[in-house]
Amino acid sequence: LGSNEKQIKIVFTLIAAAYIIFEYRVKIEQDHIANSMAYVQRYTNEPILEVRDRLDAFWLSAQIQDFSRELQAVPDKAVRFKRYDKKLPQKLKAVGRDRDVYKILLFYRDLGLCVRSGRCDSKTVCDYFFLDMQSFRSNYWPLLGEWTTTLGERAPEELSQLVQQTCSANLLQYCKDQPSSPYCQKQKVESNQ
């Protein structure tokens, strides 16, 4: 044992150091997951929940149900999309729901910043928020595009980066399930280049 004492001490020191590094990484990962879950908590409570409820009520309103029927009556898909692009922002603004859309957009922007800064766990964020973020983009793209073009707002692009890059595995699965989505058509074009 005497001649191997230094080697044994080195081995035990390395094992202890590896264990400390492992514990440190586990703690960091737990902190990132906890930060992500704090966003889940915010998303499912006031005031964000109230904003989401108002937007849900907007989509279920008689005015929007009539608008949906009007769009479905248009046989040409391109004309239907063009009409949706033009009229949805007007309808949101007429009832003040554009401010609610903006509040949700800022929430998603903050969530993306948390992930990009390394404070939030990307897997947890994508697993919990992906479908809501994708639905948000699909429903409000005319308004998001308008803000990007007329106001120079970067939050819609930051949301797109979160969905398309950070949550790319979720987007691929979504596109398998929803191949007709305009976002999936765009995805096919980008992946073929």
Note the run of SSEs as H and E: HHHHHHHHH
Helical content (DSSP H or I, runs of 4+): over 70%
Shape: elongated
Query: What is the distance, rounded to the nearest whole angstrom, between the alpha carbons of the first and last residues?
Result: 64 Å
The computed structural class is mainly alpha
Into which percentage range does the β-strand content fall? under 5%
Number of helices: 9
Mean pLDDT: 88
User: What can be said about the biggest beta sheet?
Assistant: none
What Rg, in angstroms, do the CA atoms define? 23 Å
DSSP summary, beta strand count: 0
What is the oligomeric state here? single chain
Flag low-confidence runs: none
Keywords summarizing the entry:
193 residues; mainly alpha; 9 helices; elongated
How is the secondary structure organized here?
Blueprint: H1 5-43, H2 48-60, H3 62-72, H4 77-94, H5 97-116, H6 122-151, H7 155-166, H8 168-177, H9 182-192
Helix pairs in contact: 1-5, 1-6, 2-5, 4-6, 5-6, 5-7, 6-7, 7-8, 8-9
Give a description of the structure.
The protein contains 9 helices and no strands. It is mainly alpha-helical and 193 residues long. Helix 4 (77-94) packs across helix 6, helix 5 (97-116) packs across helix 7 (155-166) and helix 7 packs across helix 8. The longest helix has 39 residues, at 5-43. The chain starts with a helix and ends with a helix.
Entry summary:
Helix content is 85%, strand content 0%. It has 193 residues and is mainly alpha-helical.
